[in-house]
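Office hours follow-up: a student asked to see two folded examples consecutively, so here they are.
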Amino acid sequence: MGNVLRMGGLLAVLAQAAFAGEAAKESLGPQKQLLVDKHMIASTQNVERVLGRVHKANNGQPIFSDGFFYGTVLHADNRFKMWFRKFDGGGYGYAESVDGLRFTKKADLVGLNFAGDINLAVELNRKGSKPSRRFLGGYDAPGMAAGIAHSADGIHWTPLNDGKPVTFRAADCHNQILWDPIGKTYRLFTRTDYGSGGGPLADTVAKGFEVRGTRGMTNRDIEAKPTDWRIVRQWHFDRQGDEEFLRRQIYSMTVYVYQGIYFGLMSVYEYPGDVSEGRESDPLRRHERDVMNFYLATSRDCDSWDLTWVYAGQPIVPRGPDGSFDKDNVFPSSSVVTYDDRHWFYYGGSNERHGTAELRPPVWFDKRRAIGLATLPLDRFVGWHAGARQGIIVTKPFVVTGPNLLLNVAAKQGEISAEVLNAAGQAVPGYGAGDAIPARRVDQLRLRMGWKTKPDLSELLGQTVRLRLRLTLADLYAFQLTE
């Protein structure tokens, strides 16, 4: 028994030393800490990471049938603004909505010299930009390469670089330009080609197989140097080997910057060109090959991406069932609307597969195309789930900058409690396990935590602490310190 006690004491000392020696100390400020990864997590026990669940609006039916995506929906000026591709191939239209569900077309866009594969991604420019350049647009310019433009109203556009491309090819799918408030630079995301120039996939492409990839680029001054783009990274799926392109390809990726995190909105082409489920159009049966799925990826540097949900086969907006308008293809808007305590995922859907020009004869399908909407409760992109066995999450150390600890948690049948530890991993008096007040049967975006003799964290302002969160039958998504 003495040896056991001595060993236990030694382990406790080692654990305290490890806590004290951990260098990371975050001054969180008011920014929420979204638990999409382990960026702020030191250890976990009996929990697993889970993807948030969206709700499809309008009972899964289209909310807009007068056009389709590749396009964008933003929220500004107290209304939803939609840029959509017209069915007749004649460019883009612009529509508005007050409630995000019922849109009214306002105008056709003018000024953009689109190439053949028409696409457009729209973003609000950086704060302080000239009113005439309030909106930024990335589009496919002549030469099958990305063009960029600006606009005061989102309808009348002026291309930069005299309407010539600002990159080399390719440009079909989305071309997104946005201001990155984290990196303090403009970023451009486009499709890229593989196999040309004697690359490792050259033989594959020469045999008629298309291999799609994506690239991210930066440019700090698009007005003075619209073509001065530096490639940060270009890539294609290859975790499962050089021939993974037969299983999946990245069709398009755009980025949404939110709460210090880069969210990749990924359109993934699954089993591309595989029409083994039938070469004739079938508008009722849901197919599993030659289809498009919409996945979510996350990054802290806009370079390396967490592709967990792609390889787990879990889209953020699932395709619909048999007979639905979105049963075979789901293609996201270039951005996410965050409004009214929800994230609004607008997407283009179709009731047939992609089709392919790589077969002889080519195989194409008759499609019904429309725009749908799915929403997600605020900040519930990714969470940590505990079942009937209690789970524990210990955060990395951070400086207390506000008295109130708020949790985003769903525990309708469970509970959660919060302990406060010092930097060495020891419970702070008054904030330990026995002091914590469990919150039971809750489902709140901003649950305020308390302790029996301490109403808040006021006594700990400026100190370095950790949280030990205990949860049962619960999902935890985020925490935040507020005034």
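And the second, which I mentioned at the end of office hours:
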Amino acid sequence: MTNAQQVHWLTQQQATNRLPVRIQGVVTCALPGFDAAVVQDDTAGVYIAHWTSSLGFLPEVGALVQVEGVTDPDYQFSPRVRATRVFKLGTTNLPPPVRPYWDQLINGSLDTEFVEIEGIITSVREGSVTLLTHGVKSTSWYSIRLARQMTWH
């Protein structure tokens, strides 16, 4: 498999076959505390699991990388890639974000996609942010690691 969309099209059963994957893209979300990252190519974003320092470097947002690994089922979400080798090819700009409608945000169709939302923060509490966007008020739960990557204007 050579792109993220091909991984997403797999069923959980197909992903258990540990199919070989080689994807080149940009890191849009680095999760070193979870030994993981999200890499997005021209087709989609895909969750990369087991990305540890033993692979050469920890993920960093904006890194242009080539990831080699195998498909891995994630029984709660879409299939992912279990990294076996990662090469840093340089750094690059993040891809243009998807500007989703509310129903796209809540239905999971944008899982691992780089998105941008606009709204007004109406409250901030430990572990959550309440955001008013397009007339919808929602509370988003996040971990401190993810919150550091959020950009507020």
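Two things to take away from it. The radius of gyration is 16 Å. The first strand starts at residue 20 and ends at 31.
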